[in-house]
Amino acid sequence: MSNAQSVAESSRTLAALARKGGAAKEDLLAAAGFLEEYAEILRREEELALKPENGNTRWTEEEEARLAAEYKRGVPVAELSALHARTASGIVSRLLKLGLLSEDDSNGKKRWTEKEEVQLAAEYAEGLPLEEMAARHGRSMNGILGRLSRLGLSE
Question: Between helices 130-137 and 77-84, what is the axis angle to 10°?
């Protein structure tokens, strides 16, 4: 549980106590309101901390060349993401643009089954590389990233 979630939970507890009544009802409601505002501040800080440093900056020719060399050496997307301080989907998109990646999405627009989602979550928890998850599921790396995001497991 994150700090923001803990503070928000405390706020809800205080609000519930206030609803039960008692002499300190106004004080409890005021404290609950304060904690809710504080939780929102913490949530924003946590979101900012998750964003990669270079997420909104242009790629330089030098960085593209370095990315290409690292990818050709077999560095996994997750590691490339950390090395370049960018999201995994940003790395995949740049590799596609550079013509270094040709994604095989044999499942196309086929819906994910619950069984596939459970398997994907287990593979993610094991630390399986993005490339291998894509190959196992017959889906593009962007498709895998999108599903991981929808499952709340990734960016």
Answer: 140
pLDDT in tens, 77-96: 888 888 888 888 888 888 88
As a whole number of angstroms, the distance between CA 68 and CA 74 comes to 10
- Sequence spans of domains, the chain: 3-50, 54-101, 103-155
Q: Within the chain, how many helices (H) and strands (E) appear?
A: 8, 0
Note the pLDDT tens digit of each residue in 44-76.
666 655 566 676 788 999 999 999 999 889 888
Q: How much of the chain is in helix, strand and coil states, percent to nearest 5?
A: 65, 0, 35
Question: Counting beta carbons within 10 angstroms of the beta carbon of residue 83, is it exposed (0 to 12), middle (13 to 18) or buried (19 or more)?
Answer: middle
Residue 81: which residues within 8 A CB-CB, separation 6 or more? 52, 87, 88, 90, 91
Go through 96-130 and write b for each residue having 16 or more CB atoms within 10 A of its CB, e for each that does not. eeeeebeeebeeeeeebeeebeeebeebbeeebeb
**Does the global pTM surpass 0.85?**
no
